[in-house]
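Please fill in the sequence for the structure shown.

STRUCTURE ENCODING:
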């Protein structure tokens, strides 16, 4: 299975458990929509949520802009089915976010915790920007380098090589914010990766040896804290070229 298909298959398989294990993703989605609402002066007529998953961003967007036509795009069919069950009025688009080029243009495009799963995040941002209507805005939240450092340290201390999917360096002009999350135990954090579908390992990385990991998790007592370092990116629609003379 190709890298992208593996990633999407992992999320798809986690569609039923995703909501219960993604408190921090929900907090990031809320912050993203609050930023977009503070920034975008008018009421958007059309909103697109890219990498929508089960709809954390879509839900906050619906609450903010009840009059808008909202579309949610994701490559994972079961994630979209969960979203549709919660928000039947939302249009769903099953597509690859890295290659999507539909005809519709949107006043507001939002994306949370999805961009880093794409092979070329910078190219994806340019493509998404091209989907904006004139005067439109693209707001993206993406975890960047420094995220989940606590988990990496935990594994290194146990003599294990971490196999986390790599986070990109930050993006020019982005604002950074830390989102801490507390889990009941290191085991609960490890489980959250699986239950949220975010356990696909780095390309070329080796899977963690199960017995050594189990031993390290069992040896850890008390809660386990992790932090997502999240970059908030804001891009405007490109201004139309002046007519050639
Ligand atoms: C961590 S989840 C984030 C979901 C949601 N935005 C949230 O904040 O909870 C990442 C989502 O990106 C989707 N995804 C990953 N790669 C994708 C791709 N190439 N095209 C479309 N969706 C993709 C996954 O299926 C998953 O639903």
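FILLED IN BY: designer on duty
SEQUENCE:
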């Amino acid at each position: 299975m190709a890298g992208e298909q593996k990633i999407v298959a992992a999320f798809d398989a986690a569609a039923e458990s995703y909501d219960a294990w993604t408190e921090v993703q929900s907090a990031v989605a809320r912050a993203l929509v609050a930023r977009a609402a503070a920034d975008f002066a008018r009421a958007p007529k059309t909103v697109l949520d890219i990498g929508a998953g089960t709809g954390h961003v879509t839900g906050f967007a619906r609450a903010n802009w009840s009059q808008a036509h909202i579309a949610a795009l994701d490559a994972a069919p079961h994630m979209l089915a969960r979203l549709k069950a919660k928000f039947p009025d939302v249009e769903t688009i099953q597509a690859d976010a890295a290659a999507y080029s539909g005809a519709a243009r949107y006043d507001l495009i939002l994306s949370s915790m999805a961009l880093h799963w794409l092979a070329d995040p910078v190219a994806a941002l340019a493509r998404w920007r091209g989907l904006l209507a004139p005067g439109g805005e693209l707001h993206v939240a993406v975890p960047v380098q420094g995220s989940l450092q606590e988990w990496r340290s935990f594994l290194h201390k146990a003599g294990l090589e971490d196999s986390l999917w790599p986070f990109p360096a930050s993006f020019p002009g982005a604002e950074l914010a830390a989102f801490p999350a507390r889990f009941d135990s290191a085991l609960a954090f490890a489980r959250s990766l699986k239950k949220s579908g975010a356990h696909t390992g780095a390309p070329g990385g080796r899977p963690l040896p199960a017995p050594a990991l189990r031993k390290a998790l069992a040896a850890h007592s008390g809660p386990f804290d992790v932090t997502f370092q999240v970059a908030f990116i804001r891009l405007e629609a490109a201004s139309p070229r002046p007519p050639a003379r």
